[in-house]
Amino acid sequence: MYGLIYKDYIEISDNYKKYIISYVLLIIGGILSKSLTMLMFFPFLLSANEVLNILLSDASSNWKDYIISLPLSRNKIVLSKYIFSFLIVAIFNILSLVITFTINYFLKIILINELFINYFLIIAISIIFIDIIIPIVYKYGLEKVRTLISGIFLFGIMLLYGFEKYIGIKNINNYFIILILTVIISIISLFISKKYLETNRE
What we know:
Elements: H1 2-12, H2 16-33, H3 37-60, H4 63-67, H5 74-107, H6 112-140, H7 146-167, H8 172-201
Helix pairs in contact: 1-5, 2-3, 2-5, 3-5, 3-6, 5-6, 5-8, 6-7, 6-8
């Protein structure tokens, strides 16, 4: 399974220069405007984009047809994709959190608890986006669902906005519910993806 994860890493490893440039520009913009909104939201854009890039690369190279012909369990094949996708979400959000926390420490733009809650929501939405996209792509292929993916992406943005606006940051129970739902959705998504991959193998 490590080899599968490493393959996905190689697919996006050349993009680090773009990440650095983007973060530098966002840091400058955040400091000048005294707003951390884009810096906080950027991890969702990055993680969604990179997961889609990996799936697109797999589709263009017929990777799925090749990998299911190998003597590997479908559990490892699918699980490796989820693990790497979740690692991308974690890395981008941790990096962004460190940057925004540092800026906020000096500029005092928002409350610390609001900062952490925003990242919690962004991570949850990013994971749910991945949970929806992977089984759909496994079932129908990326080319057939491009328009649908754009719709899901916009829905994720609206969902994030709705969480922040209507849930209320003081009610910790709401965020515990979101955490549980995210875990449940991930488990269901993983199970569905395994089934679709098994169908393609038969």
